[in-house]
Request: fold
Amino acid sequence: MGRTQGLERASVSADSQLVVFRVGSGKFAVNIHDVREIIRLPRITRVPEASEVVEGIINLRDEVIPVYDLRKRFGVSETGFTEESRIIVVNVRELCGLIVDAVQEVISVSKEAIVPPPPEVVTQDSSYIDSIAIRDDRLILILNLKELLQGVTAAA
Reply:
């Protein structure tokens, strides 16, 4: 019985670390293990006839990577970039950048505070919503980057 209690305690204390960011008025997060780095917006080179959500490409230490604007991906009205705008460089299938309005924090969330999204809110167009973190009085949408990027490249 002591062994079972130890296992239960381990699952309760197991946390996920998430990078929380804002796009429009929404709070989103990705697993910190998928994030290579977070950078200020450098000069972005536009690519003719690229998908609408592709903002362009950047040179990151002699590596050319595509950059996707999550405001366009989520259908949020564009207000221009600000001092808070950042690129979250992720490595899922390949290295790429995700433009967000602001990176807010890194949080630890217990497994018990992560729930699946209600089936009524997930459509084929929003299948990138992996789960929802409940933190204090906030709901944070946790993104599945493979699904999110699949949707972006399919839109190209």
About this structure: The two ends are 55 Å apart (CA to CA). The chain has a mean pLDDT of 86. The first strand starts at residue 15 and ends at 23. The CA atoms of residues 16 and 109 lie 5 Å apart.
